[in-house]
Design goal:
2 domains, four-stranded parallel β-sheet, elongated, Rossmann fold, alpha/beta
Length: 408
């Protein structure tokens, strides 16, 4: 028997399921008997919870439906795999399950923390002469994995952000100065500002774009921010500002912590960031007397498959397929990467890289791509990001809304 298993981990995206499509199609092409899917990632697998993807994807119509289905079809998790030294039984359990089900290939789709799981399992297999192979499939809307040019999931999220920002600007411009509103849009991004930067893509012949973009890569100066608002109110009838949820003040606090509320943390010790736009709106209203509106895109930006980038969908599928190919060659402890060959016309291929140089590392926006004086993005970022949001895949509608593939 020749079997393979794939799991999804971390925050979902609009195209993470396309990677599952890529894995399934390539595995079947290469003669794998069973393609299993972990239910709720490695956490579910440890409990013996997985499915045979043949039950869903033998039907080609379901494959097309899955490409249009947002979030994690298999279910995700935020489970931190313990180190072997502290919990050897967990590793014995995982490898016993792999052996019992004749699974020789383990693929994990996720971001920084997920690649750490791939690293630890591949290291254990190597140290204990286990034959199983482990490959990472990149996924993160944050676009912060190193080595790879960009990450599947980012392009679709950026497309949604740019579209939403453009629509918000259009709405906010509906009234004259007597009803001037400061609209602050909060966008995901803890330490890297790739998502908030995508607000710059809204600018065009028919849109003036956002008035400022604030990123985690730079320090947030509250006094300077208020000075900008006071300056803009005399020049414009509408003010729209994009701000990353992870912006910090000079004393190292997240802006959302200025309301003096304690933030919850997840299994990896990450603070649960939320409320940055609301906090800033309260401050602006108090200090300037202007009308304000806080908009938090939140889950919408990563779940909007109805406006997913076709480029993103196709690349998500390609990295899934490449992971199977590499594992089938005997490679392990690696992550598939995207390699940009050229910008115009855009061309991108897949490659692989040692996961040890990727796990737990973050890639931030180059400071030279940021117009620090005007709080805008330079052309270098636009050239980088624009190709990633191109193309569309029309949803399959039923009863007036998109239909999705779900697990039974």
């Amino acid at each position: 028997m020749k079997n393979i298993i794939v799991g999804q981990s971390g925050g979902p995206t609009a195209v993470i399921n396309s990677s599952i499509v890529g894995v399934y199609k390539k595995a079947k092409e290469l003669g794998y008997d069973h393609v299993y899917g972990m239910v709720n990632g490695i956490e579910g697998f440890i409990k013996g919870n997985f499915i045979d993807l043949d039950d869903y994807l033998k039907d080609k119509d379901n494959i097309e439906l899955l490409r249009r289905t947002p979030s994690a079809f298999l279910g995700s998790c935020r489970y931190k795999l313990p180190k072997f030294e502290s919990d050897p039984e967990t590793y014995k359990r995982i490898f016993q399950l792999l052996e019992d089900n004749e699974i020789d290939t383990f693929l994990y789709t996720g971001g920084n923390d997920s690649m750490d799981t791939v690293k630890m399992l591949s290291d254990y297999a190597k140290d204990n002469n286990k034959p199983q192979r482990f490959m990472g499939v990149p996924k993160t809307i944050d676009n912060d994995l190193p080595i790879t040019d960009h990450c599947p999931g980012y392009g679709s999220c950026a497309k949604y952000i740019a579209t939403s920002i453009k629509e918000i600007i259009r709405d906010n411009e509906s009234f004259n100065k007597s009803r001037l509103t400061v609209c602050i849009v909060e966008i995901m991004g803890r330490h890297a500002g790739w998502l908030a930067a995508a607000a710059a893509l809204a600018k065009g012949d028919d849109c003036s774009g956002v008035d400022a973009i604030y990123l985690p890569e730079t320090t947030f100066d509250l006094k300077e921010f208020l000075n900008l608002i006071n300056d803009l109110k005399y020049k414009k009838d509408s003010i729209v500002i994009a701000v990353s949820e992870g912006v910090k003040t000079t004393d190292g606090r997240f802006v959302c912590e200025l309301n003096d509320e304690d933030l919850a943390v997840d299994a990896f010790g990450h603070k649960q960031l939320s409320g940055c736009a609301t906090t800033l709106c309260h401050i602006v209203a108090k200090e300037t007397g202007l009308k304000t509106r806080a908009i938090e895109l939140s889950t919408l930006q990563r779940a909007a498959s109805h406006i997913a980038s076709l480029t993103d969908i196709e690349e998500a599928e390609a990295v899934g397929a490449r992971a199977v190919e590499e594992a089938n060659k005997g490679n392990t402890g690696m992550m598939v990467t995207l390699k940009r060959e050229q910008d115009n016309p855009y061309k991108c291929t897949t490659d692989v890289f040692d996961v040890h140089h990727i796990a737990n590392a973050e890639k931030k926006i180059p400071l030279e791509w940021i117009d620090l004086e005007n709080h805008q993005m330079k052309d270098e970022f636009i050239t980088y990001a624009r190709p990633l949001i191109m193309g569309e895949l029309t949803p399959i509608f039923k009863d007036g809304v998109p239909t999705h593939l779900i697990r039974k």
